[in-house]
Specification:
mainly alpha, 7 helices, 195 residues
Length: 195
C-alpha cells in the first residue's frame, strides 16, 4: 500500500506539470509554445509565474515519491535518477528566469534535470529485462532514446519550445506508465531485498 501511494506521485506530478504548461502557455498572449521554453512561464513578472512555479514543485515532489516507490520495487539506480529529477525541478522553481543572477543557475538545474529524466527509463532497462518484462524494457529504450534526441535538439535548433516539450513529455509518459504499473499491476510490486 505504501508503494502504491508513493507511485501516485508519479501520476499526479507529471500530469499536473504538463496540464499547467499547456493551459498557461495557451492563456498568455505573445507566448509561443513552439519557440519559448517552459521556464519562461515561471519567469519573474510572467503572468503565469505562480501557477507554473507551483506546477514545478508538484512535479518535483511527485517524482521524488515515484523514485521512492521504484527504490522499493526495482533493483538498480533508476530510483536515484528519479529523485534527482524531482529535486532539480524544485531547484528550477527556486531559481526563476529573470531574477537577479539566477539564470545561469536555473540553466544548470534544468540541464541536470533533463539528464536525470532520460536516465530514469534507460537505467530501468536491465532490471526490467532481468525480471522477464521484455516489453517494458524495449519501451524504456525507446523512451530514453526519443527523450534524449528531443532534448538535445531543443538546445541546438529552432523550435526550442516544441522539442523541449516533446522530450519532457516522453519522459513524463514513462513515469506515469510505470507509476500506473506500480499502482495497479498485479505482479509488479515486489520488494527489493534489503541492501
Amino acid at each position: 500500500m505504501r508503494v502504491r501511494l508513493l507511485a501516485l506521485g508519479g501520476i499526479i506530478g507529471p500530469t499536473t506539470f504538463v496540464a499547467t504548461w499547456a493551459i498557461a502557455g495557451a492563456s498568455w498572449t505573445g507566448y509561443s509554445p513552439v519557440e519559448d521554453a517552459i521556464s519562461r512561464l515561471a519567469a519573474v513578472h510572467a503572468p503565469t509565474q505562480i501557477a507554473m512555479t507551483l506546477a514545478f514543485v508538484v512535479f518535483g515532489l511527485g517524482v521524488i515519491a515515484f523514485g521512492l516507490a521504484l527504490r522499493a520495487t526495482q533493483p538498480g539506480p533508476a530510483w536515484i535518477a528519479a529523485i534527482a529529477t524531482g529535486a532539480s525541478t524544485i531547484a528550477v522553481a527556486a531559481t526563476p528566469l529573470d531574477a537577479l543572477s539566477t539564470d545561469a543557475l536555473h540553466g544548470a538545474f534544468a540541464t541536470f534535470g533533463y539528464l536525470t529524466l532520460v536516465l530514469v527509463p534507460l537505467l530501468s532497462v536491465r532490471p526490467l529485462s532481468r525480471a522477464g518484462r521484455s516489453g517494458w524494457a524495449r519501451c524504456a529504450v525507446i523512451v530514453g532514446v526519443l527523450s534524449t534526441a528531443c532534448l538535445v535538439t531543443s538546445t541546438i535548433g529552432p523550435a526550442h519550445g516544441f522539442w523541449q516539450r516533446a522530450g519532457l513529455v516522453a519522459g513524463d509518459v514513462w513515469i506515469v506508465a510505470r507509476s500506473l504499473d506500480l499502482c495497479f499491476g498485479a505482479d509488479t510490486v515486489r520488494p527489493v531485498p534489503a541492501r
